[in-house]
Amino acid sequence: MSHTIPAVPAASGGQTSGALLELRHITVAYGGFAAVDDVSIALKQGGALGVVGESGAGKSTLARVAAGLIAPAAGRTLLDGRELAPIRRTREQRRRIQMVFQNPDSSLNPSHTIRRILAEGMLLHGTLGPHPPRDVVDARCRRLLAMVGLGEERDILARRPRAFSGGQRQRIAIARALAVEPDVLVADEPTSALDVTVQRGILDLLVRLRREQGLALLLITHDLGVVNAVCDEVAVMRHGQIVADGPADLFFHAPLAGYSGDLLAAAREVALQAALACKPAFRYGGKDLTREGKKNVR
Ligand SMILES: Nc1ncnc2c1ncn2[C@@H]1O[C@H](COP(=O)(O)OP(=O)(O)O)[C@@H](O)[C@H]1O
Ligand SMILES: [Mg+2]
């Protein structure tokens, strides 16, 4: 079925599955420890894939491989079926995959104005042509801010991150990513550092950007509610491996025993229940579910 991760064709080089972004058999080792262990995921054009799992599962490491920030010990990353260099990507390849981090306070330079934060990538990547006039850049910055639901105050471009709330700063970080017109947004726990009351607004924004801009999302989270709000595909990670993956509607609407209380515990229970209930819609880490499933998930 199309939602299961396609098998890698043996010795076939650049064969594609139609996915926009694919990670194949990625392994990342820190010392002798495999933080990510032979993981494959595929993100469709305009799709939203949620990678969910407990803390330490390897989610951020996987996100960084996708964005080209760290090189895996093994495995390949493909964009439009073409293999990307692990880290020394071309400028154009870097432009197409943008990342948003958990904490806007550490990802936005506090001494830079919003204009500078938003314009930097556009100027580097030439999104507005080689030498865009200042008013063209400003107009583009204002459109970006409107796109992420920020105000129209006259002085907004001259302000610095400190003048905004945490949720607004995360919107600015998202606007900065959008500034270079990426195809893929990799968002690593984009709402985890925010007040519960503003989390929903950021998730709604991601849903809207996907719909309106055709942006594909690779959304990393420990929170199943976040996946449920935004994603149409789910991959559950544990101990560096994918233990279950498939369509979100099956994942969330399969009979779910134990889906209450602590979401992290629930994630494991849900992964197991969904995998059991929906097989073969849910692949189970490539392993025989009946023999290995319980051992892997609990
Ligand atoms: N730079 C690093 N050096 C050594 N170990 C790391 C490093 N980054 C992450 N790890 C370890 O790799 C594992 C996965 O980490 P991470 O990808 O951050 O997980 P998650 O995002 O799911 O919480 C954890 O055990 C973590 O301690
Ligand atoms: Mg993480």
From TrEMBL:
One of its GO terms (molecular function) is ATP binding. Residues 21-264 form the ABC transporter domain. InterPro entries: AAA+_ATPase, ABC_transp_ATP-bind, ABC_transporter-like_ATP-bd, ABC_transporter-like_CS, P-loop_NTPase. Keywords: ATP-binding, Nucleotide-binding, Transport. GO terms for biological process: transmembrane transport. CDD domains: ABC_NikE_OppD_transporters. The keyword Transport applies. Belongs to the ABC transporter superfamily. This is ABC transporter ATP-binding protein.
